[in-house]
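FORM 12-B: Structure-to-Sequence Request
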């Protein structure tokens, strides 16, 4: 579904990574590893089409439905939890909100302003996007940060379910929660399968 050849990214004469060549097939989990500043988020943005590479080729076959979830959580503090949920999931309803909150143990009122939520609760609200829609390609930047162990298990199960259904999943994570079919280590430049 995605083919990458000799991908390079430089900024201010500093090369973050160079010569990356790998493929992401349907139903693959591609885990991007590396230290802080190694370019994990940048690579994810290039793969999703948000950022242009300095050099190299990136081919996405077909017109897949894609989703990028980055570090920043687009929750509006002046919205209620239900308003934020519906903003993130335009085709959803109030009953979807109630079901999702129960599914991920998000104990909160739909009328409460989201400014009262913790970081982890806001992250749970954001991750509703991967539960209420299906995607061909998913780009997840540190999806497990700020979540409790139980929620990490729920999110992991959902990612594995999407994998079985053919979704290609790119993710960065400092936590060893999922085994990648392809592991891209930006520190060493090694790509393993």
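FORM 12-B RESPONSE
SEQUENCE OUT:
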């Amino acid at each position: 579904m995605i083919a990458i050849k000799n991908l390079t990214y430089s900024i201010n004469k500093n090369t973050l990574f160079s010569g990356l060549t790998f493929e992401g097939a349907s139903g693959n989990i591609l885990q991007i590893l590396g230290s802080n500043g190694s370019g994990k988020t940048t690579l994810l943005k290039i793969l999703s089409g948000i950022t242009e590479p300095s050099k190299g080729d990136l081919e996405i076959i077909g017109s897949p439905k894609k989703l990028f979830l980055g570090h920043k959580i687009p929750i509006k503090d002046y919205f209620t939890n239900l308003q934020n949920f519906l903003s993130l999931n335009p085709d959803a309803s109030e009953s979807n909100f109630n079901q999702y909150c129960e599914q991920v143990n998000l104990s909160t009122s739909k009328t409460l302003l989201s400014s009262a939520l913790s970081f982890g609760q806001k992250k749970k609200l954001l991750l509703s996007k991967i539960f209420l829609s299906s995607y061909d390609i998913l780009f997840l930047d540190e999806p497990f940060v700020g979540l409790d162990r139980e929620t990490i298990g729920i999110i992991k199960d959902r990612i594995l379910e999407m994998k079985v259904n053919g979704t290609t999943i790119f993710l960065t994570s400092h936590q060893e929660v999922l085994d990648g079919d392809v592991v891209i280590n930006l520190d060493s430049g090694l790509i393993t399968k």
